[in-house]
Design goal:
By secondary structure, the protein is an alpha+beta fold. The chain has a single domain, classed as Roll (Pnp Oxidase, Chain A), CATH 2.30.110.10. It has helices at about 5-15, 55-60, 95-105, 120-130, and strands spanning about 20-25, 30-35, 40, 45-50, 65-70, 80-90, 130-145, 150-160, 160-169. Strands 1, 2, 3, 4, 5, 6, 7, 8 and 9 form a nine-stranded antiparallel beta sheet that branches. It is globular, with a radius of gyration of 17 Å.
Length: about 170
């Protein structure tokens, strides 16, 4: 599969789903959590409580993995994304504003959660104990069992762009 085709498939897959499962680990204790996300290039934006276990873990270990599975009834139809990268808390007002805009465009119902949906400021974040995070993807494996059991292609991401050629892995 060539780079352009795989990039289109991955973006389409990301845009067709609303949730991902994030996985993290600290002191050999793994944890995972499903979250709503919005995509900006190859960054996945999500809200979470700053007091949640995964947010506490990300503050100490930013390394993360995530998956976006497709829904299917037979093993031959399994498709999905497996990703690794890092999670960071957004703190700059300009970053928060851009990320919130992308998130609310994708999930308009989330506006109701905030009293002032035009701007998620640091003060609002402090009051609600909710913050915006970005999962910065480093690599993506696209799994598609229609090509055979466990067949997947890997692409690497740098600064929000696909680099190099896809590798059948």
């Amino acid at each position: 599969m060539n780079k352009d085709d795989l990039e289109k498939i991955v973006i389409s897959f990301m845009d067709s789903s609303t949730t991902m499962t994030l996985a993290c680990s600290l002191d050999d204790e793994p944890w995972s959590v499903p979250v709503y996300y919005a995509r900006r290039a190859f960054d996945l934006i999500f809200f979470s409580s700053k007091e949640s276990l995964h947010s506490q873990i990300f503050s100490k270990n930013a390394r993360a993995a995530a998956s976006i599975p497709g829904d299917c009834k037979r093993w031959q139809d399994i498709k999905g994304l497996q990703m690794n990268g890092t999670v960071r808390l957004l703190t700059k007002l300009s970053d928060i504003t851009r990320a919130a805009s992308a998130y609310f465009k994708r999930h308009p119902f989330a506006r109701d959660f905030f009293s002032n949906s035009r701007l998620i400021s640091t003060e609002l974040s402090k009051k609600t104990k909710v913050a915006l995070y970005v999962f910065g993807i480093k690599s993506i494996h696209y799994l598609d069992n229609s090509y055979g059991f466990g067949v997947r292609w890997k692409i690497d991401i740098q600064d929000g762009c696909v680099i190099g050629s896809p590798i059948l892995s």
